[in-house]
Design brief:
The complex is a heterodimer of chains A (669) and B (351). A 6-stranded antiparallel β-sheet of chain A has the order 9-12-6-1-18-17, with no helix packed on it. In chain A, strands 8-2-16-19-20 form a 5-stranded antiparallel β-sheet. In chain A, a hairpin with a 3-residue loop joins β19 and β20 (475-479). Chain A is of the alpha+beta class. Chain A contains 22 helices and 20 strands. Chain A folds into 5 domains: 2-183, no CATH class; 212-489, no CATH class; 502-534; 540-582; 586-663, no CATH class. Chain A is elongated, with a radius of gyration of 38 Å. By secondary structure, chain B is α+β, with helices and mostly antiparallel strands. Chain B has 7 helices and 18 strands. Chain B has helices at residues 14-28, 49-67, 71-95, 246-252, 262-265, 285-304, 324-336; strands at residues 35-37, 44-47, 99-102, 108-109, 114-121, 128-135, 142-146, 151-158, 164-167, 171-175, 182-188, 193-197, 211-212, 231-234, 256-259, 266-271, 309-313, 316-321. In chain B, α2 runs antiparallel to α3 (71-95) and α6 (285-304) runs antiparallel to α7. The longest helix of chain B has 25 residues, at 71-95. Chain B starts with 13 loop residues before the first helix and ends in a 15-residue tail after the last helix. Classes of the chains: A alpha+beta (669), B alpha+beta (351). Chains A and B meet through α6, α7 and α8 of A and α2, α3, β6 and β7 of B.
Chain lengths: 669, 351
């Protein structure tokens, strides 16, 4: 088998290599494609490989046409459309694999290569990690190797030669890539994306229904990285504020839908105390129009290229979805008060409950309220409910099961188990039933530091939901009922973890420390990747220009710099060409110069005439005894001697000859 | 694509006419050289269709990267673009610096293929891959690799359309290595000319009768037993077996005897005026060509039979002799007969 592999005919070897490369290009995509598409792609590649191995003819075009029609129909059935990202990827993979069955002419091969390049790009829709980048770099080199190989028409050159050429091209192309990457102006999307363009990127949601955050808690991926410029607050105080959910419809929490006109609603009335915490956030794209800040940020965070505004509920909204890695710096206060100090009409919004639901919770609330008639007793009521959470046998779990419509009733009286979402929701319903204005705040809580690069990491599993209750004289006050149920959930590294894959758990079982360090290293590298590659944006570009010396750079300046670089490199290229021409044999150039001087306009001498022949011509023209002729002939014969009878280094002689050349009595033209 | 080809009609096919004129003008200003060093000045480069396809691919990749805001997509696009740009340079470098040398050209017969051998000499260290050579416009490519600091020889055949001392048609060398996105080519007009013998008539009539030699009309043939022979003649009854040329029999399937006295008796003169083709007047196209073609066939036949023969072409006369050199002389005379190059000793080789 190995022997056969080494002595394969060239066609077979090239085809097998191309199939291998295409397989490599497709592998990361297989898991995401519809099952039939992955199976078809693998089957077709395998079939084509067998045909190549056995040197059998390719199937007829009718076969291909039939397969193509079938797969288009299947795509239509699976995705309900042929347009859009996912359907496009499916079709692309189908076309690429089917085209391998039609490798007849050189043009077909080109189509395969170019479809391959497209397929490589489609991976980046779903993942732009370091691993996928490395895989695609290998794929690119593979495709280039195959492309170079098809342009070596003679014999059976080893693939290594083509690979070396491809590698050379990529290595020399890399600086061009870097310059273009750094200077090519980052434009806004040229037109709107199909709806499915951004699915598959996890994050907080603008609404909350039972189960949503359970999925997030299982997701160990990184949500945001923070570099603190001032001392890091205690972990239990790190609440990163996201969407605030204030309106309850059935079992779904929504952002506030106020029943009051704009002017009657409360102002944020944010008052801060103490030193601010300064930090820089690198936010993973979540495709939602908000950013997350620690607790309360009084000043507008510094985000390049986006308009920000703070809602009445202290959430910072952006004017466009965060579709890219986003870096911003902010100042926050962990000690603050906000909201009206006295009870206002608008607070009524935070007391609304859906009618007819959770009767037992309402019943329990009215029992509690009988004891506390006065408004000032609200803190005591809050404490009483928290006390029940602590002592009433409530537990924290990631798998609470499916709840019915009366979520609060089920939590308080039947199941007594849930995660932050259930706990916060039930708590707020209870508060509202007690006539205490309350709302849910979602965001991220906690996090951990990566000891390698000092970045504070928040994962999707750090997503959390807590509550705020309004108390007279204190405004909105944060209450985290989950802390009452499971103190470990808040403020320590001990927490429920999602199941790991086999390798991870094996490593972790052997040595948790090694696992921890490995993960820390990997994440530090990944962070670099994010900071330098994925987060490279127009803002970074403009910073770069500022660094070069532009006082107020705009994207037009980027164009100018790019243009200047192109002009400079072309000039360098021209200079190099001149230099290369001058590198021609100096001896020959001298001889050519002599031939030019001796020839006439009507009868030019051939530049390749040997010196001795030229000398003969000179003698013929002027006679052997002419002084000028003797000088020139002597020079020509010495020129000949430097070439054909080298004594010592000919370079020194040549230099002397060149000097003489200028003083010789050449005939006038 | 031959320079000698007539131009298309200017009114009926104006575009083709202008193109052909341009090509004509372009080629005629190329210097004639037997050795040519390919430099920036005579190596041309243009993108191929695949090159335009790649450009379109790059554009789509760029638009996708912009629309989906994929920084990794930008990297892929620019790396591919950078590689293609380097590929363009490598492609040009494959031809640039190469020396094309024409090897001395053998004369050939009209109607048959004349093969010219070209040396490709490379001084750089790396191999030059995938260089094709062809006659300009013929579309028949011969591909070769030129090893580093070495040479490769390529043979290109062409069919001359006229006899005489003919210019070698323009040659072109091309490469698409490494990516096929650019076509780099050069056009080269060799200075050497190739001597084209007339096409021998396919079924010529038998050789004409020899003319009796003036002054020695009827000397009886005198056979000698020694090994010296002066000529051959057809086998006659009674010829001793040892005079039969058995080798000839094996080769040509005819009985030929050695004849010591033949040269004295008859002289075989191949005369343009006596070929059996009616020549209206000197230099009349097809008839003359037919006559020349017949003479050519006769020269070959006579040479094959080791006969002694002479050639009369109008005013020019080549005295009877035999052998390879004589045959060549006769064929050369036939080749250039009636043309401006009708000179006594044409130089078929390059210098």
């Amino acid at each position: 088998m190995l022997e056969r592999l080494r002595h394969l005919p060239r066609d077979t070897r090239d085809t097998l290599f191309l199939l291998l490369v295409i397989g490599w290009v497709l592998v990361p995509q297989l898991g995401r494609l519809p099952l039939w598409c992955s199976a078809l792609a693998l089957a077709v590649l395998a079939w084509r490989g067998v045909l190549a191995w056995k040197a059998q003819p390719l199937p007829s075009r009718w076969w291909l046409l039939g397969l193509l029609v079938l797969t288009i129909a299947a795509t239509l059935l699976t995705h309900r459309t042929l347009l859009g990202r996912d359907a496009g990827v499916t079709l692309l993979v189908v076309l690429l694999t089917l085209k391998t069955l039609e490798l007849r002419a050189r043009r077909d091969a080109f189509v395969v290569f170019f479809l391959g390049f497209f397929t490589m790009l489609t991976h980046f829709f779903f993942s732009q990690t370091l691993a996928i980048a490395a895989a695609m770099l290998i794929a690119l080199l593979g495709l280039l190797t195959a492309l170079v190989n098809t342009h070596m028409p003679v014999g059976k050159p080893p693939l290594r030669e083509a690979a070396v050429t491809a590698l050379t091209m990529a290595a020399l192309g890399a600086p061009i890539m870097l310059v273009l990457f750094m200077l090519f102006p980052r434009l806004a999307p040229l037109w709107g994306m199909p709806g499915d363009a951004m699915t598959g990127r996890s994050g907080l949601s603008s609404t909350m229904e039972v189960g949503t955050i359970a999925e997030l808690a299982l997701d160990d991926s990184i949500a945001m990285r923070i570099r603190f410029d001032s001392p890091i607050p205690r972990q239990s105080e790190l609440y990163f504020r996201g969407p605030v959910l204030s309106t309850l419809q059935g079992r779904q929490w929504l952002p506030l839908r106020s029943s009051f006109p704009e002017r009657m609603q409360d102002m944020p009335e944010l008052q801060t105390r103490g030193e601010p915490v300064r930090y820089q956030v690198t936010l993973e794209p979540h495709n939602r129009p908000w950013i997350l800040v620690l607790d309360a940020a009084l000043d507008k965070p510094d985000v390049n290229g986006m308009e920000l505004r703070m809602t009445r509920e202290l959430q910072w909204l952006t004017d466009q979805p965060v579709a890219n890695l986003l870096r911003y710096s902010a100042r926050s206060h962990t000690e603050y008060s906000h909201g009206p100090m006295r009870r206002t009409v608008a607070l009524q919004d935070y007391l609304e409950l859906p009618p007819g639901l959770n009767p037992r919770t309402l019943q329990w609330a009215s029992e509690l309220r009988r004891d506390a008639q006065r408004v000032e007793d609200a803190p005591r009521l809050v404490d009483a409910v928290l006390q029940r959470l602590r002592t009433g046998g409530y537990t924290y779990t990631l798998e609470p099961g499916v709840y019915g419509d009366n979520t609060a009733d089920e939590f308080w009286f039947d199941r007594r188990t849930g995660f932050c979402e259930h706990i916060a929701s039930s708590f707020v319903i209870m508060m509202r039933a007690l006539d205490i204005p309350a709302r849910i705040v979602t965001g991220y809580q906690g996090g951990e530091i990566n000891a390698l690069d000092g970045y504070w990491i928040l994962r999707q599993s750090d997503a959390h939901a807590w509550t705020e209750v309004w108390l007279a004289g204190r405004g909105w006050v944060r209450v985290d009922p989950t802390a009452a149920v499971a103190p470990g959930r808040i403020g320590s590294l001990q927490r429920l973890t999602a199941p790991r894959n086999a390798i991870a758990s094996a490593v972790e079982a052997v040595s948790p420390a090694i696992w921890f360090n490995l993960r820390a290293t990997w994440e530090a590298v990944n962070n670099r990747w994010n900071q330098w590659v994925l987060n490279y944006s127009q803002a970074t570009q403009l910073d770069l220009l500022k660094h070069i010396g532009f006082s107020s750079p705009s994207w037009e300046d980027l164009g100018y710099v790019l243009l200047a670089l192109i002009v400079v490199s072309s000039l360098l290229g021209a200079a190099w060409t001149l230099w290369e021409r001058s590198r021609h044999d100096p001896w020959l150039r001298l001889l050519e110069g002599a031939a030019r001087k001796l020839g006439t306009a009507s009868a030019p001498l051939a530049p390749s005439m040997p010196p001795r022949t030229l000398a003969g011509l000179v003698r013929e023209r002027w006679g052997a005894h002419d002084v000028r002729a003797q000088a020139i002939c002597g020079w020509l014969l010495r020129l000949e001697a430097t070439r054909y009878a080298p004594q010592g280094r000919s370079g020194a002689h040549l230099a002397a000859l060149r000097r003489e050349f200028k003083q010789l009595p050449w005939p006038r033209r | 694509m031959d320079l000698a080809q007539p131009l298309p009609h200017p009114l009926r096919r104006p575009v083709a006419h202008v193109r052909a004129r341009f090509r004509h003008w372009w080629q005629s200003r190329l210097p004639l050289r037997d050795v040519t060093l390919l430099t920036q000045r005579n190596v041309y480069i243009l993108p191929t269709r695949a090159g335009f396809m790649l450009a379109a691919t790059l554009l789509v990749l760029l638009v996708a990267s912009i629309n989906y805001q994929l920084n990794l997509g930008y990297l892929l696009t620019f790396l591919l673009a950078g590689s293609a740009l380097v590929g363009m340079h490598l492609c040009h470098g494959t031809l640039r610096g190469l020396t094309l040398q024409l090897q001395p050209v053998e004369a050939g017969f009209m109607g048959g293929n004349t093969t010219i051998a070209i040396d490709l000499v490379s001084t750089r260290r790396r191999v030059r891959h995938g260089i094709g050579l062809s006659l300009l416009g013929s579309g028949h490519w011969t591909w070769t690799d030129v090893p580093g600091q070495g040479r490769a020889t390529v043979h290109v055949a062409f069919k001359p359309h006229r006899r005489g001392l003919q210019p070698i048609p323009a040659l072109t060398a091309e490469t698409r290595f490494p990516l096929g996105t650019f076509r780099v080519w050069t056009i080269w007009r060799p200075a050497s000319r190739v001597l084209v013998y007339p096409a021998p008539e396919t079924w010529p009539p038998p050789l004409p009768e020899g003319e009796p030699r003036a002054g020695s009309a009827a000397t009886a043939p005198m056979r000698r037993a020694s090994g010296e022979f002066d000529g051959v003649r057809s086998y006659q009854r009674g010829d001793p077996l040892k005079l039969v040329m058995w080798k000839k029999l094996a080769k040509a399937d005819e009985l030929v005897s050695r004849d010591t006295q033949q040269a004295q008796r008859h002289l075989l003169w191949l005369d343009l005026a006596n070929t059996g083709v009616a020549l209206a007047h000197q230099g009349s196209g097809t008839q003359l060509e037919r006559a020349i073609s017949r003479l050519c066939a006769w020269v070959l036949a006579a040479d094959k039979q080791d006969l002694e023969y002479g050639l009369r072409l109008g005013g020019r006369q080549i005295p009877p002799a035999s052998g390879e050199a004589h045959k060549r002389r006769c064929l050369e005379a036939l080749a250039v007969y009636g043309s401006a190059q009708d000179a006594p000793s044409p130089q078929p080789h390059g210098h």
